[in-house]
Design brief:
Elements: H1 7-98
Length: 99
């Protein structure tokens, strides 16, 4: 069968194989490049994720502090009338004592 192949057919087949090799090399090069790009993106994404985690922890701490401030304000709002009343009584007593 190989003896039936003409020189021109063999050269055409040889060129086709070379073309296939070029395509294969190109695909391999693109795959390597894309793999490198993906690795770089993953590294950057890991850094961003770490930063987001740190921000999330800070927000959680601030949320806890805000809860503490809100609790204090609620307590002050509840206690304020008694504080004002006690202060007014003391002021009135002092004024009566001076008169």
């Amino acid at each position: 069968m190989l003896a039936d192949v003409t020189k021109e057919e063999f050269q055409a087949l040889e060129q086709e194989v070379e073309g296939e090799k070029l395509v294969t090399r190109h695909i391999l090069e693109q795959t390597r490049r894309n793999g490198d790009d993906l690795a770089a993106v993953k590294t950057r994404l890991d850094r961003v994720e770490e930063k987001v985690d740190r921000v999330d922890k800070k927000v959680d701490r601030l949320d806890g502090r805000l809860d503490h401030v809100e609790t204090g304000l609620r307590s002050l709002r509840t206690d304020m009338p008694k504080i004002v009343a006690d202060t007014m009584r003391e002021v009135l007593r002092e004024q009566k004592g001076k008169s």
